[in-house]
Automatic annotation (TrEMBL):
Pfam families: PmbA_TldD_1st, PmbA_TldD_2nd, PmbA_TldD_3rd
The organism's place on the tree of life at top rank: Bacteria
InterPro entries: Metalloprtase-TldD/E_C, Metalloprtase-TldD/E_cen_dom, Metalloprtase-TldD/E_N, PmbA, TldD/PmbA_N, TldD/PmbA_sf
Species the sequence originates in: Sphingomonas morindae
Domain Metalloprotease TldD/E central: 123-224
Start and end residues of each Metalloprotease TldD/E N-terminal domain: 33-90
Name of the protein: TldD/PmbA family protein
Family the entry assigns: Belongs to the peptidase U62 family.
Metalloprotease TldD/E C-terminal domain ranges (all copies): 231-447
């Protein structure tokens, strides 16, 4: 793995080589990831995985024609061949009048903000094994748990550098750690499985392995002996585990590509009331130790916190440079990219702000409803907003959780669902996309 400084030098040199060879513009992205994962099952070591890989990608332009090429060989001869191959491909590519690098005057020129995303630790496999064993033991100790699907603990580090022929040259590194446990409760036809997982940028921020395992076990036992419920229209409450999926549907509808293709159910709603008044949805790429934090976007633009939804109103689209040109707008610092291909647009640390009510108060007046803890399938139409997903969870009766429920489908339209949404006050920052418990009125539940 190259240091950040060496990675920046390598990408800058590759861009310079592309320009000398005849490219009108170019950018280069270096990405290196290394990870260690230890898995256990039934108290015994099952697997130790160690991986490390580095790749450099080059995107170059000849007029309005472009091509992207990549190599895992960073030697001089390999990179010279990469430039030659990329130029040959670009000269044969079709013209795209929207293609190009980000506007030079929008690039990050200041010192990137310190986001504390890398703790520089490298926990030994023995330490990871200990965490995995602790998580599994705690899960298996829960009364009613009968089998283990195993537990794991992981550690990794990523180094990224980006250089452009317009003068940007930046890089940063991140660390990441996780712990997972999955168990089965019950016997025979009564068996139910569930899991728990937690991730963090700093090893010291990880939740105790025993707590993760105990939660996995409790979740599995709680799902035993599910019942079917009669179909009807009722309030549906999305547990914190599944609420972020609603935000993913929102983001998919407001990225520049979807808007430019006119494949978004929110196409005509810019500046309008999409959620109830008071709802705030924020993307914050500068949150210290955030799982999605980044000092610059995939094109070298500065990043900044932004309320995507403010007081229930949609404030704008998420745009990379190409989609911004297509729409006659400016890029928003939300470009995302991998080694190959052009950038797209996406979020960093996204969350829906907490509401005023506790989860208990949120359901206190529900005579009959459904609390959803798991969603199945991908039944969301991004063009119409029609929503239909298989669901697992718990019946809500007289303001309290009753027995577990399975084999149901929940349906609605995202436009209506967003307007009928109420968040609870239990927001926690555990993932890159977060939401509190969410209640949605008037959804269709198809059961027995």
């Amino acid at each position: 793995m190259l240091t950040i400084a060496d990675a920046q030098a390598r990408t800058q040199d590759l861009v310079a080589a592309a320009r000398r060879a005849g490219a009108d513009a170019a950018d280069a992205l270096y990405l290196c990831t290394e990870s260690t994962a230890v898995s256990v099952r039934l108290g015994a070591l099952e697997e130790v995985e160690r991986s490390e890989g580095e790749t450099i990608g080059l995107r170059l332009f000849v007029g309005q024609r472009s091509a992207s090429v990549s190599s895992s060989d960073l030697g001089g001869a390999a990179l010279a061949g990469l430039v030659e191959r990329g130029l040959a491909m670009a000269r044969e590519a079709p013209e795209d009048r929207f293609a190009g690098l980000a506007p030079e005057d929008r690039l990050l020129r200041a010192t990137p903000p310190a986001l504390d995303g890398d703790d520089q630790q490298a926990p030994a496999p023995e330490r990871l094994r200990g965490r995995a064993l602790e998580a599994e033991a705690a899960a298996r100790a829960v009364a009613g748990v009968t089998k283990s699907e195993g537990a794991s603990a992981s550690a990794g580090r990523t180094t990224l550098a980006l250089a452009t022929s317009t003068g940007f040259n930046g890089g940063y590194s991140t660390s990441g750690y996780g712990t997972h446990a999955s168990v089965i409760a019950g016997e025979g036809a009564r068996m139910q499985r569930d899991m728990a997982y937690r991730a963090a940028r700093h090893f010291a921020d990880l939740e105790a392995a025993e707590a993760i395992g105990a939660r996995a076990g409790a979740r599995a036992v709680a799902r035993l002996d599910p019942v079917k419920i009669a179909s009807g229209t009722m309030p549906v409450v999305f547990d914190r585990r599944v609420g972020p999926g609603l935000l993913a549907s929102l983001i998919g509808a407001i990225t520049g590509g979807a808007v430019a293709r006119r494949t978004s159910f929110l196409l005509d709603r810019l500046g309008e009331q999409v959620f109830a008044p008071g709802i705030v949805i924020r993307d914050d790429p500068l949150r210290p130790r955030g799982l999605g934090s980044r000092p610059f976007d995939g094109e070298g633009l500065a990043t900044a916190p932004r309320d995507i939804v403010a007081d229930g109103k949609l404030t704008g689209w998420l745009l990379d440079s190409a989609s911004a040109r297509q729409l006659g707008l400016e890029p928003t610092g939300h470009a995302t990219r991998g080694i190959g291909g052009p950038p797209g647009a996406g979020t960093s640390n996204l969350h829906m702000a907490a509401g005023a009510l506790s989860p208990e108060a949120l359901i206190a007046d529900i005579k009959r409803g459904l609390w959803v803890t798991e969603l199945i399938g991908h039944g969301v139409n991004p063009v119409t907003g029609d929503y239909s997903r298989g669901a697992v969870g718990f019946l809500i009766e007289d303001g309290a959780l009753a027995g577990p429920v399975a084999e149901v489908t929940i349906a609605g339209n995202l436009r209506d669902m967003f307007r009928a949404l109420t968040p609870a006050n239990d927001l926690e920052f555990e993932r890159a996309t977060e939401a509190p418990t969410i209640r949605i009125e008037g959804m269709t539940v198809a059961g027995a």
